[in-house]
Amino acid sequence: MKRNIFKKATSISFILALLFSISTFSQELTVDDYKLSFSFKTIKKFDNSRVLEVTFIGKNREDRKDKIPVYDAEIKFFNIVNGEEILLGTAKTSNEGIAQLILSEKQKYLTDSDGYINFTARFEGSETLDSEEEEILVKDLQLHLELKEIDSVKTIFVKAFTIDSLGVETPVEELDVIISIEGMLSKMKIKEGTIENGEIEFELLQNIPGDIDKNFTVYAQILDNDEFGDVIQKQTVNWGTFTKIASEDENKLWSEAAPIWMYIVLTILLVGVWANYVYTVIHLIKIKKEGKNLELSNKE
Questions:
Q1: Which of 120, 126, 161, 182 is placed for a possible disulfide with 78 were both Cys, Cβ 3.0 to 4.6 Å?
Q2: What whole-number distance in Å separates Cα of residue 42 and Cα of residue 231?
Q3: pLDDT digit string, tens, across residues 123-161
Q4: What's the pLDDT score for residue 83?
Q5: DSSP states of 106-128 as a string?
């Protein structure tokens, strides 16, 4: 018995020492042990609003899997042209180290002579962290998505063009686009192609499950493009299929009336429990009577 107690005490001491050493090691890490990653991107949404997003994370120089988000850092977003800075807004990083600024579709931007918008994200630093800044140059891409049924063939049309200061539309050349269907957890890619002369079309030949009204949502996405950033367009269409599950008269576990075998099993269990109670009470009464008889015999 004493040996078992000694073994348990030794094991607990070893675990506590290990935890203490791990915590001490983690406390010795400083800011210098991490390399800061300050990434910046822009996403133009389907309603023509724009998201400016910064991801601010510290990565351990030795253990690359060790990543720490920089929390509550104030990020300022600017639109800059020819040295003129316009503050678009500020946002603080979340627990995941992400700061987002959503700009309305009515937001006006300054552009350079080539039509590029200069977005700049800036962290002005703190007592422990140096300042960070990153800029991106993008053109304002107009992405149109149209769904038509032509001769009973479901067809997806995508148009992409830019508009200059005079309102002239210029079709975009050599632009990769991804067509996806909105799923329950993520988007399901169904087509991928290249826009040429500002247009591309896809024929939707497969059957796509829809909701109860046979609707599903189609996405056209331009992702990680050096000239336009991320651009997303979507549209809901009544092209889906919906199969109603036929109900059966047979009782199921989830129906209001349970199957017969469930009633039998439940009855047996309940009878067994109550029988055990009755058996216990009867024997307690017998024990009490025997105890009284023993007391009387001892007195005699």
A1: 120
A2: 9
A3: 999 888 899 999 999 999 999 999 999 888 999 999 999
A4: 86
A5: T----B-TTS-EEEEEEE---SS
Q: Is 212 helix (H, G, I), strand (E, B) or coil?
A: coil
Are 129 and 70 in contact by the 8 Å Cβ rule? The answer is yes
Other Cβ atoms less than 10 A from the Cβ of 176: the count is 14
Give just the sign of the alpha carbon dihedral 294, 295, 298, 300. negative
Please give the structure tokens belonging to residue 280.
Answer: 């216990």
What distance lies between CA 28 and its chain's CA centroid?
Answer: 33
Q: What is the DSSP letter of 247?
A: P
What's the rounded Cα separation, in Å, for the pair 27 and 31?
11
Tokens standing for 39?
A: 């990434």
Strands 229-237 and 34-44, sheet pairing:
parallel
Check if the beta carbon of residue 223 is closer than 8 Å to that of residue 192: no
- Alpha helices, DSSP H, located in the chain: 2-28, 260-299
Query: Phi and psi at residue 249, in whole multiples of 5°?
Result: -75, -25
- Report the SS3 class of residue 266: helix
Partners of 175 in the β-ladder: 195
- Provide the token pair at 131: 């300042």
10 Rama sector, left if φ>0, alpha if ψ -120 to 50, beta otherwise: alpha
Task: Centre a 10 Å sphere on the Cβ of residue 244 and count the other Cβ atoms it contains.
Answer: 6
| Cβ atoms of residues 232 and 217 within 8 Å | no
Asked whether residue 10 carries a pLDDT value surpassing 80, the answer given is no
Give CA torsion, residues 81, 130, 93, 135, to 10 deg.
20
- Residue 216 pLDDT exceeds 70: yes
- Tell me if 157 sits within 8 A of 146, measured CB to CB: yes
Which one-letter DSSP state was computed for residue 209? B
Asked whether the predicted pLDDT for residue 17 surpasses 90, the reply is: no
